[in-house]
Design brief:
With about 230 residues, the chain is α/β, with parallel strands linked by helices. About 50% of the residues lie in helices and about 20% in strands. The protein has helices at about 5-25, 30-40, 60-65, 80-90, 125-135, 155-175, 180-195, 200-205; strands at about 50-55, 70-75, 95-100, 110-115, 135-150, 210-215, 220-225.
């Protein structure tokens, strides 16, 4: 098994029971707004079949359902996360798949919409994952990626990094008993921000229209790519 894949799977299996609480607590609840805003920015119209990749416990799927998306499948590498998703949203039972983004077990053109919230950093081969997205999307289908980034404003960036590097790992360890998981977050955000250009990778994967937005002082980015 790919080393990063194995590490990510173990990490999220270990923190699954406290994942939702920590997500909402550590983001001060702003993560709900980020998901809702990203769906609004996508101008959803005919998108009725959704694949939520790296779905975790299903918050993005649940938000999309409120926007009228009728058919949803969740995919995640962590079996523990998928179990919690099915418990939280009983209608999802039988509609969840343990899978990685790089090899999705779905037919060509099967979905109208793909969502990924804070999961692209955990892909072990992002270009391969985006190529899979392009394959399984219908014509004019969209992908919405919501992901952390480092702010460009120096003052906000310094506050952000202090919180990410000092406060977040300590709180994560205290609540989840797993410091490694919440040290991985700032480390992966920094590496991702320095090395990955989502817009370019989407275009290389064959997407025709790619738009990028910044939210909350540049703390997160929303990238919407249309096939």
């Amino acid at each position: 098994m790919n080393e990063k894949k194995e590490k990510v799977q173990k990490l999220f299996d270990n923190i699954s029971q406290r994942y939702d609480f920590l997500n909402h607590f550590l983001s001060l609840g702003i993560d709900f707004y980020w998901r809702k805003k990203s769906l609004k920015l996508a101008n959803l119209e005919g998108e009725r079949k959704l694949l939520d990749v790296a779905c975790g416990t299903g918050d993005f799927s649940i938000a999309a359902k409120k926007f009228g998306v009728e058919s949803i499948i969740g995919a995640d590498l962590s079996l523990n996360m998928l179990k919690l998703f099915s418990e939280k949203e009983k209608s999802m039972r039988g509609k969840l798949a343990q899978s990685v983004a790089e090899y999705l077990p779905f037919k060509n053109g099967q979905f109208d919409l793909i969502t990924v919230a804070f999961g692209v950093r955990n892909f072990y081969d992002i270009p391969r994952g985006f190529a899979e997205f392009h394959r399984i999307l219908s014509d004019k289908g969209k992908t919405i990626v919501l992901e952390f980034r480092l702010p460009t404003n120096r003052i906000i960036k310094s506050i952000y990094l202090f919180y990410f590097n000092k406060i977040l790992p300590a709180l994560g360890k205290m609540i989840s008993k797993d410091r490694e998981a919440y040290q991985y977050l700032p480390d992966s955000v920094r590496e991702f921000d320095e090395n990955i250009n989502l817009v370019e990778i989407f275009k290389s994967a064959g997407f025709n229209e790619v738009k990028k937005y910044s939210l909350t002082f540049g703390l997160v980015q929303v990238v919407i790519a249309q096939k």
